[in-house]
Amino acid sequence: MIERAGRREKGTGRRLSAAPALVCAALTLSACGNIGRFEQATPTAAAAPVKPNRVVQQTPTSEREHERILSSYGGAYDDPKLEALISKTVERLVAASERPDQAYKVTILNSGAVNAFALPTGQLYVTRGLIALASDTSELSSVLSHEMAHVLAKHAAMREDQARQAAVVTRVVTDMSTDPDLTALALAKTKLTMASFSRQQEFEADGIGVGIAARAHFDPYGAARFLTAMERNAALKIGKTALDPRAQDFTSSHPATPERINNAQTTARQYSSPESNERDRETYLAAIDNIVYGEDPSEGFVRGRRFLHPKLGFTFTAPDNFTLDNTAQAVIGVREGGSQAMRFDVVRVPAEQSLGDYLNSGWMEGVEKSSTEDLNINGFPAASATAHGDQWQFKVYALRFGSDVYRFIFAAKQKSTESERNARETVNSFRRLTLDEIQAARPLRIKVINVQPGDTVESLSHRMSGVDHPAERFRVLNGLDAHAQVKPRDRVKIVVD
């Protein structure tokens, strides 16, 4: 069944209470209760299960994880067409599995990341970013059956134990660490992380999943095709630093290696038959037509080097050669090559406390109190200070915008004229959005169209909006290799605003 959990609260007064443990290490924060995001996802009551005799049994741990996942991935994405397709697909897969009594509950996450995972209870999660990448129902079924296999083989339970142990270790590191390399790395890695499955567990889940999908009469080669799509999607990120938070997606815990693709193809050959080759492409494309692509503007979004939050009414622009990512806890920027990084978030500062006093209040080690300076940035009261580590230099700004205080933290391996200018220009670009800008902010969407005579990959990719590498992105989204061409009457996906 599809989990119809609530989306994020729309009131601006909602704030996250505390970031995950890994985030606490960022910039040697001595306490992380003040690290917030702009809004919080608040789960609501789930819909009744499709079949009353199969109900996912919630545990206190799974409920906490569910809420944490919703908070970290933008809440649930409500789309009746998609929910109906996934419910029907899961029912077919369950009936074809070795444990038709095992209950599953699927939540579509409102995130452009390409990710899917499972909890031991049978709660499955798939992002709309992954759904947009898949080209047909057989590819989506390969992801769902793979995650079901992790539950059936009890891999998810093993991973939960690993994650629990890792959390303890991380907490110790957080409390004890003054290592600037570790803390600078934590600055960029603010996506929800889960303990990875072992290589053997991934291969086992691939084998089980392909078998389930084939017995459900889906094309067993869907897994190999989707693994290939994942690999090509990840390749579009080549050239970005390893600190890039966008690496924290499905490929991080489910590496799409050539060996996995080859093994998936070998397994598929064992099941290939006329009865098990359904791709269901037309139905799938109809279901994903108009799905939101990338970030949801209502929660703040990135366009190139610019971050905009229409609901809260502000924007800023990152420096040249920076890649911005709007994570669950903060907006993170990383310079090409990894020599500089930045973090933007909201913090709790009492109205009676000056921003200079906040910067010197001990939340960050190595702050030079003598460097504290009161500022006025585009009419907003602000303050700045510098801080030093053994290998990283920091410039910190706090800016009061209405009743909120926003924090810019810039990290550079070496203080330079460029790093100082980057920090100053970014903060000075913070301003209110105009009414026209707020009204114009709308999400990118997947549009399914018919190829017309004369259309080419190049001409269709030119119709894409708001994406990098449009020609390559078009090919990846449509499962086209480097030499494939489109034909009239083909149905293809493009990204439009």
UniProtKB/TrEMBL annotation:
Signal peptide: none annotated. Keywords: Hydrolase, Metal-binding, Metalloprotease, Protease, Zinc. Residues 83-267 form the Peptidase M48 domain. The keyword Ion transport does not apply. GO terms for molecular function: metal ion binding; metalloendopeptidase activity. Its cofactor is Zn(2+). It holds the Pfam family Peptidase_M48. Residues 250-275 have a biased composition (Polar residues). One of its GO terms (biological process) is proteolysis involved in protein catabolic process. The keyword tRNA-binding does not apply. One of its GO terms (cellular component) is membrane. Residues 250-280 are annotated as: Disordered. CDD domains: M48C_Oma1-like. PANTHER family: METALLOENDOPEPTIDASE OMA1 (PTHR22726), METALLOENDOPEPTIDASE OMA1, MITOCHONDRIAL (PTHR22726:SF1). This is Zn-dependent protease. It comes from Bradyrhizobium elkanii.
